[in-house]
């Protein structure tokens, strides 16, 4: 009586729903966390065999990283925290598949922290290298990307002492470098976005491998999906000023009172870009306001208002020079618009942009840009 | 042998059994002869050795034969001796009596001699027997076709103690007891309002349990009261031993994992509920009183929410809801995050979880099910074992076995944390029956997570929401005030607003009288306006 049709109908419905679950979803996606390999970084080089890629995967050994406090076996102190597995393949995905045959666990890329492309491979062409990162969702879009001077595999293989994981080490010094303003900020997602928008042009960070550390600073210019060349740290800082990406960093100038030096630390910087005239070649004006503190002088302790004004002038002069250097390199040497002037026109002057759109690559090197910089010292410290 | 059985179960006895409808058989009237009455009663209470019969004469002259009948142990013997026998046998001698008053003699005894407080007349056997069985004493007087039921109920009972399942830091320490009248009195003491009505029905063919329906007339919606009484009257069970029987018989959806009546051991909670427009169901022999209609949110309330200041009360309430969520989904979330979506975890956490799982022989799902299951066993064992041992078992089971299992590498330490947090969270829910419901759902969510990861958990939550939205408790929406949304009630939902701002009673009870407090400011403003007008 009480188990009437309603109850059975509900049971049946529930059963159907459960079945739908089982079939409509992928319970074969289930994989215990200890049966996965969390790839920390990927390095891509051109292999000695022509036309193929040599891909290095940075693989953390979890047992060694978490310290062998628990667990049944293993946990020895001498265990290496990471291993680097390299494979030669035509594509990155194929490389990962190759590796899966050698290792008994699933490669998992959502915790990938860095992607490094070797110089040779980058010069040859990056279109096919970045393709899988664009296509597949599993690659972590927030991982950092850089082009290395020399082989990328070397960076994967460095032995770090402070951090157990080289990928964590690299990521954290990337963060510091970005703060200094002398490095190209942005993660894999930003990079893919930029290169996709501009049809193959982008600014990427540069890494120089050392023995057991890396040197990060400066940048690489990618033009038409190919590495065109390098930019120095100062040039990158200038470009960062131009793009309004400065969040810190310091400028050191000669002390006006003598032979010493004086360091100005940026708190923040504002910039304003304006289109002045739009003839055959457009003309821009850039205004930069840099605010910061004087944190160190090697000459004396006292500083008066006049000195402050002089330092402000010197600092703004120096920033101006850096900006010009950066602009000059991009306009004259690489002839590629990484200053996002085209994007600026497209956004704020869409009608004018139509006139330039087709020939922009030819017009850009001749674009005139006037720059004025104002430095503002907020604080000179407790001593007067 | 067959002879004995046929004697014991002869048809003669059967036809004077009580009717199944539980109302006492009033058709059989008492007789004139006291001996016949006694014999008849003994026929009803055949083979009931605990029935005591006491024959005596009133006063000095052995003229008026009387008889007392009661059940040993259910009456207060002192009362029987002092208030009935002493007054009839001894005190009656002090006053000269007209012994031949005839019909008036009965009234003389009832009104002039008996010193007992509660005396009732009966003229049929059904009510008389029921009186005896309820612990009253029945007094037969020879030559009268009626008898007196004297209330002498008194048995060994537990006093009013602090409720153990709903302890509070601030608030009264009184809890209900097992005695119906005491419980009703505890409520009445808090609501000295003639509008507080108590309607008693008797339920259970064998138990004849007193069940009282309490409500405040003019606040509780009459249709709800009628509905409660109607549903109570449909109950025709052999026995009602606890309010749980009633709860399960009258709730709307018995497939739901959530109780649709709120149960409490605290008179202050019942009083608060009655004032909000609830109907209370008080059952004899149990300290648990039911409140209806109820809402999902009210099951998360503790009386302290209203005694503490509103910041603290609100924070604690939010904590409780968070705890309820974890009590339901924490192991499931762990499984989904680690086995399906490890990308959602911070890298360091993912690596350390992976490292602790290294060498664990079972998959996370098996691990979780086994751990949650053994925790349930521990909990159950802790309840069964006597007090001090219960705690020991908790420590031995929780700490020693857990630690040993981790050391042996059978379970991962993170799973121990997950399951412990899950269990502790469930104990933060004030209402035990809800907490247990959530513990049950934990298993379902674990299975869903094992099949489909976070997608499965979302599906489960969706199902839960759909279920809760459709669920009703005595015509009120279970998810009120969010279903049939009323903004002013949100201040007593996930948070508890400041007391002066809670001017109206909650809408889910559909109270007759919405005003919880007089708006003094409003009154004063009107007064001031009047005064200005006079000038």
Description:
The complex is a heterodimer of chains A (384) and B (535). With 384 residues, chain A is α/β, with parallel strands linked by helices. Chain A folds into 2 domains: 32-231, no CATH class; 232-384, GMP Synthetase, Chain A, domain 3. Chain A has 13 helices and 14 strands. Chain A has an 8-stranded mixed sheet. In chain A, strand 8 (202-209) and strand 9 (214-223) form a beta hairpin. Residues 68-76 of chain A have low confidence and may be disordered. Chain B has 3 domains: 2-150, no CATH class; 180-294, no CATH class; 309-477, no CATH class. In chain B, 48% of the residues lie in helices and 11% in strands. Chain B is globular and about 100 Å long. The longest helix of chain B is centred in the C-terminal third of the chain and has 39 residues, at 432-470. Chain B has a 5-stranded antiparallel sheet, with helices on one face. Chain B has helices at 2-8, 11-14, 34-44, 77-94, 104-113, 125-133, 180-190, 222-234, 243-250, 267-276, 304-307, 310-340, 347-357, 364-384, 387-407, 413-427, 432-470, 520-534, and strands spanning 51-57, 65-71, 119-122, 137-141, 147-150, 196-203, 209-216, 262-264, 279-283, 289-292, 472-473, 476-477. The A-B interface holds A 7, 10, 21-22, 25-27, 29-34, 36, 38, 40, 60, 62-63, 65-66, 70-74, 108, 110-111, 113, 138, 140, 168 and B 255, 338-340, 342-343, 347-348, 350-360, 363-365, 406-407, 409, 413, 448, 450-453, 455-456, 459.
User: What is the total number of structural domains of chain A?
Assistant: 2
| Low-pLDDT windows of residues of chain A | 68-76
Query: Main interface pair?
Result: A-B, 33 and 34 residues
- Annotation, overall tally of beta strands of chain B: 12
Mean pLDDT of chain B: 86
What order do the SSEs of chain A take from the amino end to the carboxyl end, as H and E? HEEEHEHEEHHEHHHEEEHEEEHHHHE
Helix residue percentage of chain A: 25-40%
Order of SSEs of chain B: HHHEEHHEHEEHEEHHEHEEHHHHHHHEEH
Largest sheet: spatial strand order of chain B = 1-2-4-5-3
Radius of gyration of chain B: 31 Å
> How confident overall, as mean pLDDT of chain A?
84
């Amino acid at each position: 009586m009480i188990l009437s049709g309603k109850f059975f109908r509900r049971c049946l419905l529930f059963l159907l729903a459960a079945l739908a679950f089982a079939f409509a979803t992928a319970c074969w996606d289930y994989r215990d966390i200890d049966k996965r390999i969390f790839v920390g970084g990927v390095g891509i080089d051109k292999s000695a065999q022509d036309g193929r890629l040599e891909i290095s995967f940075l693989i953390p050994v979890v047992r060694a990283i978490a310290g062998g406090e628990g667990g049944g076996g293993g946990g020895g102190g001498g265990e290496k925290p990471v291993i680097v597995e390299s494979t030669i393949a035509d594509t990155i995905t194929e490389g990962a598949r190759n590796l899966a045959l050698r290792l008994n666990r699933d490669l998992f890329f959502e915790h990938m922290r860095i992607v490094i492309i070797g110089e040779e491979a980058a010069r040859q062409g990056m279109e096919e290298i970045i393709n899988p990162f664009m296509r597949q969702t599993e690659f972590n879009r927030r991982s950092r990307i850089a082009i290395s001077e020399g082989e990328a595999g070397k960076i994967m293989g460095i032995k770090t002492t402070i951090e157990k994981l080289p990928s964590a080490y690299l990521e954290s010094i990337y963060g510091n470098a970005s703060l200094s303003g002398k490095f190209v900020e942005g993660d894999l997602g930003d990079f893919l976005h930029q290169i996709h928008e501009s049809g193959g042009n982008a600014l990427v960070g540069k890494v120089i491998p050392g023995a057991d550390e890396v040197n990060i600073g400066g940048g690489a210019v990618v033009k038409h999906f190919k590495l065109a060349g390098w930019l120095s740290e100062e040039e990158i800082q200038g470009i960062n000023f131009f793009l309004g990406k400065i969040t810190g960093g310091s400028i050191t100038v000669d002390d006006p009172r003598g032979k010493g030096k004086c360091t100005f630390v940026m708190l923040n910087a504002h910039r304003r870009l304006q289109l002045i005239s739009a003839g055959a070649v457009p003309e821009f004006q850039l205004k930069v306001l840099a605010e910061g503190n004087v944190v160190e002088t090697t000459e004396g302790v006292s500083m008066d208002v006049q000195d402050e004004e002089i330092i402000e002038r010197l600092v703004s002069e120096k920033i101006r020079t850096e900006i010009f250097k950066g602009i000059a390199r991009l306009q004259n040497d690489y002839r590629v618009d990484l200053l996002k002037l085209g994007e600026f026109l497209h956004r704020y002057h869409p009608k004018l942009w139509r006139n330039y759109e087709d020939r922009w690559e030819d017009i850009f090197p001749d674009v005139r840009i006037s720059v004025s910089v104002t430095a503002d010292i907020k604080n000179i410290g407790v001593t007067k | 042998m067959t002879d004995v059985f046929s004697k014991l179960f002869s048809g003669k006895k059967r036809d004077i059994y009580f009717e199944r409808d539980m109302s006492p058989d009033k058709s059989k009237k008492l007789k004139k002869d006291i001996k016949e009455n006694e014999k008849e009663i003994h026929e009803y209470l055949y083979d009931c050795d605990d029935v005591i019969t006491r024959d005596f004469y009133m006063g000095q002259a052995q003229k008026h034969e009387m008889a007392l009948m009661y059940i040993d142990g259910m009456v207060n013997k002192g009362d029987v001796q002092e208030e009935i026998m002493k007054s009839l046998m001894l005190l009656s001698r002090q006053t000269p009596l007209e012994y031949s008053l005839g019909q008036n003699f009965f009234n003389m005894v009832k009104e002039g001699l008996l010193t007992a407080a509660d005396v009732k007349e009966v003229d049929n056997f059904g009510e008389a027997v029921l009186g005896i069985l309820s612990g009253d004493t029945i007094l037969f007087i020879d030559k009268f076709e009626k008898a007196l039921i004297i209330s002498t109920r008194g048995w060994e009972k537990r006093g009013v103690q602090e409720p153990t399942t709903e302890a509070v830091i601030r608030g009264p320490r009184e809890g209900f007891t097992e005695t119906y009248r005491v419980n009703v009195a505890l409520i009445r003491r808090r609501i000295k309002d003639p509008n507080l009505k108590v309607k008693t029905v008797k339920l259970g063919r064998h138990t004849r349990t007193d069940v009282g329906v309490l409500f405040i007339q003019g606040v509780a919606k009459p249709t709800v009261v009628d509905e409660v009484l109607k549903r109570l009257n449909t109950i025709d069970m052999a026995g009602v031993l606890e309010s749980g029987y009633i709860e399960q018989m009258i709730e709307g959806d018995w497939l739901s994992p959530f109780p649709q009546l709120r149960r409490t051991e605290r008179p202050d909670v019942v009083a608060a509920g009655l004032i909000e427009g609830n109907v209370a169901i008080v059952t004899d022999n149990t300290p648990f009183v039911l409140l209806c209609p109820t809402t999902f949110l009210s099951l998360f309330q503790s009386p302290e929410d209203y005694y503490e200041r509103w910041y603290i009360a609100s924070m604690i309430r939010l904590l409780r809801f968070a705890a309820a969520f974890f009590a339901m989904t924490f192991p499931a979330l762990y499984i989904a995050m680690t086995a399906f979506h490890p990308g959602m975890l911070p890298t360091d956490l993912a690596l350390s979880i992976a490292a602790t799982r290294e060498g664990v022989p079972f998959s996370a799902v098996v691990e979780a099910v086994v751990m949650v299951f053994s925790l349930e066993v521990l909990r159950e064992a802790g309840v069964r074992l006597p007090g001090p041992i219960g705690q020991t078992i908790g420590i031995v089971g929780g700490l020693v076995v857990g630690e040993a299992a981790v050391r042996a590498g059978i379970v991962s330490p993170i799973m121990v944390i997950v399951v412990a947090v899950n269990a502790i969270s469930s104990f933060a829910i004030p209402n035990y029956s809800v907490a247990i419901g959530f513990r049950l759902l934990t298993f379902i969510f674990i299975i869903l997570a094992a099949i489909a990861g976070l997608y499965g958990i979302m599906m489960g939550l969706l199902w839960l929401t759909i279920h809760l939205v459709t669920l009703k408790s005595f015509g009120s929406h279970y998810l009120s005030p969010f279903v049939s949304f009323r903004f002013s009630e949100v201040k007593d939902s996930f948070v508890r607003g400041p007391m002066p701002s809670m001017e109206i009673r909650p809408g889910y009870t559909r109270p007759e009288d919405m005003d919880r407090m007089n708006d003094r400011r409003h009154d004063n403003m009107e007064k001031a306006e009047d005064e200005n007008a006079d000038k």
